[in-house]
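Summary for the steering committee. One of the milestones for this cycle was to obtain a three-dimensional model of the protein with FE2/S2 (inorganic) cluster bound, which we needed before selecting residues for the alanine scan. The sequence and ligand used are listed below.
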Amino acid sequence: MADTALDLMVNGEAVRRPVPAHRLLREFLRDDLGLTGTKIACEDGMCGACSVLVDGAVVKSCLVLAAEADGCAVTTVEGVATADGLSVVQQSMIDHFGFQCGFCTPGFVMTMTALLASGRRFGPDAVREALVGNICRCTGYTSIVEAFLAAQRQHDQLRNQQPDQHRDQQRDEPGDGPGEPEAGGKFAADG
Ligand code: FES
Ligand code: FES
């Protein structure tokens, strides 16, 4: 089968290269681009370890062809940190001991990042529901949920310091909503 010419953004950088039509997005990111922060476990869409953002939506990269991301903006865990250092979510996972082996952590970080970016606000129950697509086999979820809630508080503080930038973002009451990130691109959030 002929290769597909991919033209997309990955972590803010333009990437153009041919890929086999059957190449999975996780193979493209890890094997072709060397972005091994995206982890592979179940390869069946169940664990969320391979989660990345495609046009802001959480996508399990073991279920998506690289060709499907053509023209999109892909963010992996390598692209989450800012020029100032770790992102709010990353730092909160450290501060609240949200991992042990860390294998699931990139996937959780990507989902949490999308939740914060959605502009919605999550209470503890809504966070648990929103994270249902990510599985951790060793930490337990209490510390992970606490890490998200702390990151959300930090995010709120930063937003309040920049009211104009976030004026139009939607806000739900704590505990409301199914906890899914929203996106306007061709990828629907799959949690
Ligand atoms: S490796 Fe993709 S969901 Fe588990
Ligand atoms: S920290 Fe080990 S699987 Fe989650």
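Key point for the committee: Residues 40-43, 45-50, 60, 62 surround FE2/S2 (inorganic) cluster (ligand 1) (CB under 6 Å).
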